[in-house]
Amino acid sequence: MLVFLLLLLDFCIQTSGQQQTAPPGRCDVPQRLAVHTDCSSCAVSITANCPHGFTKLDTTNCSYVVQIGGREVELEGCQHLCVENFMHPQCCPGHWGPLCLSCPSWSGKTCNFNGVCVDGDVGNGTCICDEGFSGFACQECKNPNAFGKKCDKVCDCVHGVCNKGPDGDGQCLCQPPYTGRRCDQVSRGCRGCSSFSYCKGEEKEAGCDCLPGYRRMKENRCLVSCAQRDCDVNAHCSTQASNIKCICKPDYEGDGKICIPKNPCLENNGGCPINSTVCVFKGPNKSSCECMFGMSPVGGSPEYGCQLVSACSADTCDPTAVCQTKLDGKARCLCDPGKIGDGRRCYGNLMERLIELDSRGDHRGNLTGAIALFERGCSMVLSHSGPFTAFFPLLKQPLTGVNEEVVCKNHLILGQHLYKALEGRDLNLYGGEKLRVKVNKGLKCLE
Ligand SMILES: *[C@@H]1O[C@H](CO)[C@@H](O)[C@H](O)[C@H]1NC(C)=O
Ligand SMILES: *[C@@H]1O[C@H](CO)[C@@H](O)[C@H](O)[C@H]1NC(C)=O
Ligand SMILES: *[C@@H]1O[C@H](CO)[C@@H](O)[C@H](O)[C@H]1NC(C)=O
Ligand SMILES: *[C@@H]1O[C@H](CO)[C@@H](O)[C@H](O)[C@H]1NC(C)=O
Ligand SMILES: *[C@@H]1O[C@H](CO)[C@@H](O)[C@H](O)[C@H]1NC(C)=O
């Protein structure tokens, strides 16, 4: 039991360690996993443990099938209900992928509120825009000439560019020398404007001004200037000739409009040995190798690989069982062939147990007669059928003048039972007789 509690504690430390490194976009949800242990005889299942990390919640009855003399017999048994509470990793809404990155946004609005992001753990972080919208964050109208919150109005500039898009108001920025609401009149004040400027104002007040996104420089020239919102927050904005260029910062990759932290784990397991370690993302272009559950580093660092820590100690399994540490770090106990049980306890054949009881302990020497009886009367049955529960008579001397086969078979019942469970019940003995086990009387059961 002590071992079990220590394992649970270990498990808690592991989970809280994972929570500390959870990235900001993670909204893990508590989950409960329930499993039943295999159905086996109640006598055996009483010592069965829940899987590593699970807690025993309840024990229920069930039925299991054994082969007895070539036919299948259904026996009543017990199984445990085991539960494990854990945090299931999940991205917060508006976040996607194994790193739970933010979905594209425009002015702080996810997909500009004009579309839905393919978010969640298996999402790819793209915005699927509503009808009429486009752009990586649905920040543009599909019709390049449309404007208005719903992209339902159409610009009608004749010689000019429209303040278009969902944020636009449809105003025309007239190409010099044109002016007017629709840029269909010529203004004298707008002759000789430099490149990337438009004609602002009407008639006599009309003059040159730089287009939005351009700044007035020396000699009235207009030069393109960066606006950070044209690029991802993890990109540098630069100007080339009259174009804006977005380039992802080092350790990020993408087209500049969307930049994603480089995850070294996605390629070749981040260089971590694949059969004993996991690659853990630590930040843009940063990762580390960690040993798989239940393993410890071989050469001082997980980068060189890990090996299983033996989960077997002296009291993990029945002394006659073989203990193995499995890949999941859990101990598996295997009873000797010919014995039954879950490995934590193995029950040998009844004759062996009888001889063992006669040779030491409370009943030393008092079962010698019973050994003779079972050897002569039941050895075939015991080696070919079963499982049985036996009532061993306290007999120092062998019985004489009886049919040993009949007497022996009437000391057997089919299946494995706890004495407590037999009390007050009518039993069919294997020899055909009936037996009532009275509470606190007569029979001594040697399990
Ligand atoms: C469990 O026990 C109840 C009451 O004794 C019985 O009705 C039910 O059939 C049993 N279930 C199994 C699977 O044996
Ligand atoms: C992202 O996923 C959606 C939905 O599964 C799909 O329609 C879209 O093509 C994907 N985009 C990319 C870039 O993979
Ligand atoms: C990513 O990190 C590796 C190792 O630290 C380095 O060699 C590489 O240049 C980095 N890549 C970028 C694009 O910064
Ligand atoms: C992992 O693979 C290597 C090479 O294939 C092998 O030498 C090593 O024993 C394996 N380790 C485990 C824990 O399986
Ligand atoms: C064997 O049985 C006798 C009589 O019932 C009892 O006195 C004795 O203590 C028993 N032997 C052992 C080793 O318990």
UniProtKB/TrEMBL annotation:
Alphabetized UniProt keyword annotations: Disulfide bond, EGF-like domain, Glycoprotein, Membrane, Signal
Subcellular location: Membrane
UniProt KW Disulfide bond keyword: yes
Domain EGF-like: 107-139, 147-184, 308-347
A cellular component annotation (GO) from this entry: membrane
Signal peptide, first to last residue: 1-17
Disulfide-bond pairs as recorded: C129-C138, C155-C172, C174-C183
Main location: membrane
PROSITE patterns: EGF_1, EGF_2, EGF_3
Identification of the protein by name: EGF-like domain-containing protein
Species this chain originates from: Crenichthys baileyi
